[in-house]
Specification:
Length: about 150
């Protein structure tokens, strides 16, 4: 399974917010530290806010922050919310499926089981587990002027 760019950036955003807990962070900060365009980030941040992972504040002193504690954010749920709408193979797509083997294909069942196993493994991982006691990550996500 290949993780989409949107999900990859979403997890970077969540990790950045978790390492800067207690304050609002800006799209510019995240874009700079996480190597993503502000335009793409805006879409990802909007989706994460709609899903209840982030809270946003507009205006001069605005920014984004986690909407709940990092220990309550399940990475499996994040991946499901962002990846589940993307078909893993053509036969999973409702509209564009032209595969004539769907009715008798066991590979489809095996792929579905594999995807569920992938998500289930991520269900055991919280955002907190990814960022807590991780000085290497903290150094990478520190503001530019604070990097060692």
């Amino acid at each position: 399974m290949r993780v989409t760019k949107r999900t990859n950036i979403a997890v970077r955003v969540l990790m950045y917010c978790a390492t800067h807990d207690g304050r609002l962070v800006t799209k510019y900060e995240i874009a700079t530290r996480c190597n993503a365009s502000e335009n793409h980030l805006a879409q990802v941040i909007n989706q994460l806010a709609q899903l209840g992972y982030l809270r946003t504040q507009r205006g001069r002193n605005g920014g984004v922050a986690l909407a709940r504690p990092a220990g309550e954010i399940c990475i499996g749920s994040v991946f499901r919310a962002l990846e589940a709408p993307v078909p893993i193979a053509e036969c999973f797509a409702d509209a564009d499926n032209t595969c004539p083997l769907v009715a008798g294909c066991r590979l489809r069942i095996a792929l579905n089981d594999a995807v569920e196993t992938f998500f289930a493994h991520l269900d055991d991982i919280t955002l907190e587990a990814l960022v807590c006691n991780n000085p290497a990550l903290e150094a990478l996500l520190a503001p530019a002027g604070c990097r060692g």
